[in-house]
Design a protein that fits this description.
Layout lengths: L2 H9 L5 E4 L6 E5 L14 E2 L6 H13 L11 H4 L4 E3 L5 H7 L5 E5 L9 E2 L2 E3 L12 E7 L8 H11 E10 L2 E2 L5 E2 L1 E4 L2 E4 L5 E4 L3 E4 L2 E4 L2 H7 L3 E6 L2 H7 L5 E6 L4
Parallel strand pairs: 4-5, 4-8, 5-7, 8-9, 10-16
Antiparallel strand pairs: 1-2, 2-3, 6-7, 9-18, 11-16, 12-13, 14-15, 17-18
Length: 260
């Protein structure tokens, strides 16, 4: 651990939480202050065991709720979760390690600019959300976390996600979301050239370091999802989620594809 990280943790002791991790299932300490911006607790409150953040534990909890499983943890429901086909647009994160590794019904991918979608790089499947290579109605659940603000054409991604979901399936996802403003496009695309409409905003990425945010999503995202046929609910972190699972400052969207 770097000294600067340790210093931020020590300065944020009032924000730390104890609770049960909804990913790994262990009684844990959730550490704040290990992110550069400690006010964004959705990206912090990291489990000392599995390294899941507040946001990721919220996604895990909403996945359990959507599938009608006990509100305990992914690890404790690992066997039951193998009944559903799940696709996640991130590989080797805490959710993957809890329920994906060795599970033939769990598919995880990353985007590599130098690999064709559907191919593999270093054993990892490459996919782009704008043109998924999966067959129609392949998955019961699609998981994406803070990805769509980095996708050039999110409307294509929503269309593709709707296509690969089974009827009654759900896209469970997060984006940085402002509920009191419309979506703000930060860039405009001209072929392979990017025109900046606002000062560049970069977000941290475990695989690439820093990646450019193309937009800031607003409340009109719900209308966009409805246009593609989704029935969407906003799931805000509840008080009991905060005190039990260390979840704070988080919104998860659960967009269902209507049953036939």
């Amino acid at each position: 651990m770097q000294f600067s990280t340790l210093l931020r943790i020590l300065k944020s002791t009032s924000l730390h939480r104890f609770g049960r991790c909804s990913v790994c299932g262990r009684r844990s300490l959730f550490l704040a202050g290990n992110m550069p911006h400690t006010e964004h607790l959705r990206e912090s409150l990291v489990c000392v065991f599995c390294r899941s953040s507040s946001r990721k534990r919220h996604v895990a909890l909403e996945l359990l709720r959507h599938l009608g499983l006990p509100n305990t943890s992914l690890a404790q429901n690992k066997t039951q979760l193998r009944r559903w086909h799940i696709y996640s647009a991130v590989f080797d994160d805490p959710i993957y390690r809890a329920i994906g590794a060795g599970n033939p019904n769990y598919t995880a991918s990353e985007f590599f600019s130098d690999v064709l979608p559907g191919a593999h790089k270093n054993g990892v499947l490459c996919q782009t959300l704008e043109a998924l290579t999966f067959a129609d109605c392949s998955f019961d659940v699609v998981l994406t976390e803070d990805v769509l603000e980095h996708v050039r054409y999110p409307e294509r991604a929503f269309c593709e996600i709707y296509r690969v979901l089974k009827p009654g399936g759900a896209h469970i996802f997060t984006v940085p979301l402002q509920l009191d403003t419309p979506t703000v496009e930060r860039v405009r695309f001209h072929g392979d050239t990017i025109e900046h409409l606002l000062p560049p905003e970069y977000h941290g990425d475990a695989l690439r370091g820093q990646i450019l945010a193309y937009r800031n999503f607003g409340i009109d995202l719900l209308n966009t999802l409805a246009h593609f046929g989704f029935q969407t609910e906003l799931r805000l972190a509840r008080y009991l989620d905060t005190v039990t699972f260390g979840i704070a400052d988080s919104i998860v969207l659960v967009s269902r594809k209507p049953p036939v």
